[in-house]
Design a protein that fits this description.
- The protein is an alpha/beta fold.
- The protein folds into 3 domains: 211 residues, Rossmann fold; 69 residues; 99 residues, Winged helix-like DNA-binding domain superfamily/Winged helix DNA-binding domain (Arc Repressor Mutant, subunit A).
- It is built from 18 helices and 7 strands.
- The strands form 2 sheets. The chain has a 5-stranded parallel beta sheet, with helices on both faces.
- The chain binds adenosine-5'-triphosphate (ATP) and magnesium ion.
- Magnesium ion binds next to α2.
C-alpha cells in the first residue's frame, strides 16, 4: 500500500471500509444514494470501490465527474460519452434495435440550446424550451438503458459544483434550472418503466444541502438515501499506519501509531496519510531521534504555509455556502473554539456572537447561533463533547484547529 495523499485510491491502496462498500452496494439494490461529506474524506475512492463491487454482480457501472459542467447539456454529453463503451460492450442480441438510436442521440444533444446568461427575457424563454429539450433527450437515454435489460449504476461525482456553476452563470433562471434538474432525478427518472434497473450514486463535498435549503428545494433530494463517511476507528487507523510503515520500512510501534492517531483525532484516512507522510520526512532527516518524539513536529509540519492547502478549503467552503455575514460569524466562532483543544462552552460561543451582533434582538442572535452551530456540526468542523459533564464544542480535526489558530495569529 502506497502513501498516497491526494488522488482517489483504488485496489491495494484502498484500505478498510469494506463493510461500508457492502452497505452502500446493498442500499443500491433498492435506492439511490447521495453521499455528501467534506473534501478529502474518501468519497470518490469508496464510490469506485462500490462500482467494482456491483460489477462483480454483472452490473454495468459508469462514473462521470461533472465539476466542469456548466449546464445540463454538458451533463448529458458526459453521460452519453461515458455510456458509449458500455453500450458497445452489450451482446449484439441485446443492443440490436437501439444502438442506432443511442448514436443518433449524440446529434440531438448537440442541437440543444442553453440560455446565454445576461440575455434578458429571450434567455428566460430559451431556458424554458431548452429545459424541455434536455429532459426529453435525457429521458430517451435512460429509456434505452432500461430497454437493455441490465443493471446500471451511474456514479455522478461533484454534482453540487455543477449546480453551483449553473446558478452562478445564470442569475435570471439558474435556480429554476437547478430545481428542474433535481426534479428530473426525483420524478422523471423514477417514472420510467423499470427505472429501478438504473441506480444513481451521487457524491460531492458538502454544499448541496445548504444550497437546496437556501432555495427552498430540500424536497428534491429527499428521495435519495443520504449517506456519509465516518472516520476510521482507532483500531482500523492503527492497522492502516502499520501497513504503511511496513511498506516504507518505518519502525513504528503500537504506542507511536496510537499517538499519531490521537494527534490527528479525526481518523479520516487522508489525514492519516498526510500525517504519516510528514512523519516519514521527519524520520528520514533525523534518523537518530526516536519516532514518538517526532510526531508532534510532524503534525505541526502539516499546517505550515505551503503544506496547508488542504485546510484553506475548510474556510473557503463557509464563504461559498453562507451569506457573507454568516460566514464571518462562523469563522469567528471557530476562531474562539480553536483556542482550546477541549472546546468551548456554547454559552461562551453565543456571547461571542452576541458581541458581533449588538443591534439584533436576543431571539435573532440565538437563531443565528443555533443555525451556525448545526451547520458547523453537520459539516464536521466541530462536535459537542459532553464527556466532561458540560457540553463543549470542539474541533474534530486537531491539525485543522492548529491551522485555524495559526491563521489568526500575527
Ligand atoms: N480507503 C482509503 N484507504 C486509504 N486512503 C484513503 C482511503 N480513502 C481515502 N483515502 C485518502 O484520502 C485521499 C482522498 O481520497 P478521495 O479523492 O477518494 O476523497 P474525496 O472525498 O473524493 O476528495 P475530494 O472531495 O477532494 O474529491 C486519498 O488520496 C487518500 O490519501
Ligand atoms: Mg472526490
Amino acid at each position: 500500500m502506497d502513501n498516497i495523499a491526494g488522488t482517489p485510491v483504488e485496489g491495494e491502496n484502498f484500505f478498510g471500509r469494506s463493510t461500508e462498500v457492502r452497505r452502500l452496494a446493498e442500499i443500491l439494490d433498492n435506492d439511490d444514494i447521495l453521499l455528501l461529506g467534506p473534501r478529502r474524506i474518501g468519497k470518490t475512492s469508496i464510490c469506485r470501490a462500490v462500482m467494482a463491487h456491483v460489477r462483480e454482480k454483472s452490473w454495468h457501472a459508469i462514473e462521470i465527474n461533472v465539476a466542469s459542467c456548466q449546464d445540463e447539456l454538458a451533463f448529458l454529453e458526459k453521460l452519453h460519452t461515458a455510456l458509449a463503451p458500455e453500450m458497445a460492450s452489450l451482446s449484439s442480441k441485446i443492443k440490436e434495435g437501439f444502438i442506432a438510436t443511442f448514436d443518433a442521440i449524440s446529434a440531438r444533444i448537440k442541437s440543444i440550446k442553453i440560455p446565454i446568461p445576461g440575455a434578458g427575457t429571450a434567455s428566460v424563454d430559451l431556458a424554458e424550451s431548452a429545459t424541455e429539450d434536455w429532459i426529453a433527450v435525457g429521458n430517451e437515454v435512460l429509456h434505452l438503458l432500461v430497454q437493455a435489460n441490465q443493471h446500471w449504476l451511474i456514479y455522478i461525482d461533484e454534482l453540487p459544483i455543477m449546480l453551483f456553476n449553473m446558478i452562478r452563470n445564470d442569475t435570471a433562471t439558474g435556480v429554476k434550472r437547478v430545481r428542474r434538474f433535481l426534479d428530473w432525478f426525483r420524478n422523471d427518472v423514477r417514472a420510467l418503466p423499470d427505472s429501478h434497473s438504473v441506480r444513481w450514486l451521487v457524491s460531492g463535498s458538502v454544499g448541496l444541502d445548504t444550497l437546496v435549503q437556501q432555495h427552498g428545494m430540500a424536497d428534491t433530494i429527499n428521495s435519495l438515501n443520504h449517506q456519509n463517511l465516518a472516520a476510521f476507528t482507532d483500531e482500523v487507523a492503527i492497522a492502516m499506519l502499520f501497513k504503511l510503515a511496513d511498506r516504507y520500512q518505518l519502525a513504528l510501534d503500537q504506542d507511536s501509531a496510537a499517538k499519531l492517531v490521537a494527534a490527528v483525532q479525526w481518523a479520516q484516512p487522508y489525514y492519516l496519510q498526510k500525517a504519516f507522510h510528514y512523519l516519514r520526512q521527519r524520520v528520514s532527516s533525523n534518523a537518530d531521534v526516536d519516532i514518538a518524539s517526532q510526531i508532534e513536529f510532524a503534525i505541526n509540519d502539516m499546517v505550515q504555509p505551503g503544506s496547508d492547502n488542504d485546510f484553506h478549503h475548510w474556510e473557503h467552503r463557509l464563504v461559498q455556502q453562507l451569506s457573507s455575514s454568516d460566514a464571518a460569524h462562523a469563522i469567528a466562532l471557530l476562531g474562539l473554539a480553536a483556542q482550546d483543544a477541549s472546546g468551548v462552552r456554547p454559552e461562551n460561543l453565543l456571547s461571542h456572537l452576541q458581541g458581533r451582533m449588538p443591534n439584533d434582538s436576543a431571539e435573532k442572535q440565538r437563531e443565528v447561533f443555533i443555525n451556525l452551530r448545526d451547520i458547523l456540526q453537520r459539516d464536521a468542523y466541530w462536535w459537542p463533547d459532553e464527556s466532561s459533564g458540560n457540553k463543549r464544542y470542539r474541533f474534530h480535526l486537531e491539525p485543522l484547529r492548529r491551522w485555524w489558530i495559526r491563521r489568526n495569529t500575527l
